[in-house]
Amino acid sequence: MADGGFTSRENILALATQGIDFIGSIGEQQAKDASTLQRHGVAAEFSAAAFRYDPVEDLYRCPAGHSLRPLGQRQRIGVVQHVYRAEASDCQSCPFKAQCCPQSSQGRSLTRSEDAPEVQKFREKMQTPQAQEIYRQRAPVAEFPNAWIKDQLGLRQFRLRGLVKVGLEALWACLTYNLQQWIRLCWRPRLAGAQN
To answer: What global pTM score does this model have?
Structure first.
């Protein structure tokens, strides 16, 4: 189980090949896409959702009716990204240019992603109530110890170098945390009960 920082396509594929049932946050791709569009001055009503994809012709149609044709594709780990672009002349003469692609002189472009089968299977699994319930259990189990170790023990960055030494430093921090919790939850209540 991992949070969004570790739920990458690369990790999903690696764990799938090892036969490990991985539970993790899918990530907020829509929020990332929205901030990217905002940075480029694109109005919300001209987000990718406003463009209709035609799988038969393999093209997108923009809200003004122009076509975005395939430009090429990029292979990434766990995904194939298909890039589509409108003709520059269509965008330059379009009345919606200021809202759709104000900073582009080449025409509006979109990317359609095709996840690897393992990644798609992971996404489908994480939509199920069972997987979401398992993921909800992560925060109480993982967040408090991490916060305690950072705040109470001051371990915000490792002081040693090398995997073995860092592993030992993490082990000592975890042992210290466990001992402190044992004292708080077991030893002190027993001591208080014995004194009464």
So the answer is: 0.65
